[in-house]
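Batch queue: ligand-bound targets. Current item pairs a single chain with flavin-adenine dinucleotide. No template structures supplied; prediction is de novo from sequence plus SMILES. Inputs echoed for audit trail.
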Amino acid sequence: MVGLTLACALGQQQFKIAVVEAFQPEDINQNDDYQLRVSAISKSSQKILQNVNAWQGMLKRRACAYQHMHVWDATGDGNIHFDAADLGLDSLGHIIENKVIQFSLLEQCLKLPDVDWLCPQQVKDIRFSETQQQVTLNDGNVITAKLLVGADGANSKVREAAGVELNQSAYEQKAVVAVVKSTLHHKDTAWQRFLPSGPLAFLPLSDGSCSIVWSAENQRADELLEMEEKLFITELQSAFENTLGKIEKVSKRAAFPLVRRHANEYVKQGMALVGDAAHTIHPLAGQGVNLGLLDAAALAEVILRARAGGGNIASLTTLRKYERWRRADNSLMMYSMSGFKNLFSNDQAELSFIRNAGLNIIDSIGPVKYKLMRHALGLEGDLPEMAKSIGW
Ligand SMILES: Cc1cc2nc3c(=O)[nH]c(=O)nc-3n(C[C@H](O)[C@H](O)[C@H](O)COP(=O)(O)OP(=O)(O)OC[C@H]3O[C@@H](n4cnc5c(N)ncnc54)[C@H](O)[C@@H]3O)c2cc1C
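Prediction returned. Tokens below.
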């Protein structure tokens, strides 16, 4: 998702780009079952995807706008409710299947004459030098480029080849995901209940069903994954307090280990990391790909400015501007997510009281609540031009 966004952004500006991808994204049919992997796409990400002309493709396929977000704590009466209308917005964001995002981006990429799509191809070997980076593909072909961008996910080969160290720690949780159909409609709301064992999210899909992300300690997550369907439904209904009535249907389940990773460096001479290759965070606020899309937009802007000023797009001086811009922002989000996770994964009475009171206080103080909301939606902060307005 992040790599294709960057390729589209720079390909539109006549940069010659090769995208190497191991797996060919497939299109979906309207009648297909919903995919297990979805993303909550923020307002800033929406602008970025509009600027690379991929947004319409997503709306045309399957995307669900949500107008409300409701968050509550299982250990008390604390809750907070966000409403798009309070900010004069048509929605707070969209829930979109990752496959839909990937395919819609690819569709746009393939229209750009300066972008070469090399797929299915795997990166076998990488050689860095001062002026030229060399990538050998599994079919033996060799590509050379001034700049190599690692948008290759959490286990980035580019990061490893560049010798970039990671600061990482496991959250000791896994996220169990599934698609569920309940008797009540989701009311265009993204729901999240904080349980002492981890957060449970119900994310709205366009046919009225929900994609769930249930983060739980490793052992509990394994149990949730393996238990028989009937029992899983009972546990899920109880964990969600029957908020959307009875669960009538549940898809197959999958689980993803949750690890906080942050690359010590985002750039070297001729190399930059974006998206999960640079950072992975807890999905509790649905920010992972949103941060990655901001990386892509910021890197594109830094590169364009360098070219316009006659500079070297791959020099360390140029690339450091991207790193300074995005690293601090990503760190702040990562530590906030770790803090939230720790604050809510605790059923000590005093903490529970503070947490519940805190949620209620924030909910009742309009300006604080709106400030929080604007930040989470990507409407505030040091945003790249692509994330601010259409036609950057
Ligand atoms: C359960 C769960 C729920 C989440 N929910 C949200 C959410 O609601 N909102 C949100 O913003 N984020 C969410 N995230 C995070 C989000 O999924 C990631 O941040 C996002 O997928 C990162 O995108 P990316 O493009 O950087 O990397 P990836 O999606 O990992 O893409 C990397 C690509 O590189 C390719 N690749 C890797 N190595 C090679 C190689 N050697 N050769 C060729 N190709 C290669 C892979 O095939 C892949 O296509 C969630 C994560 C989890 C686990």
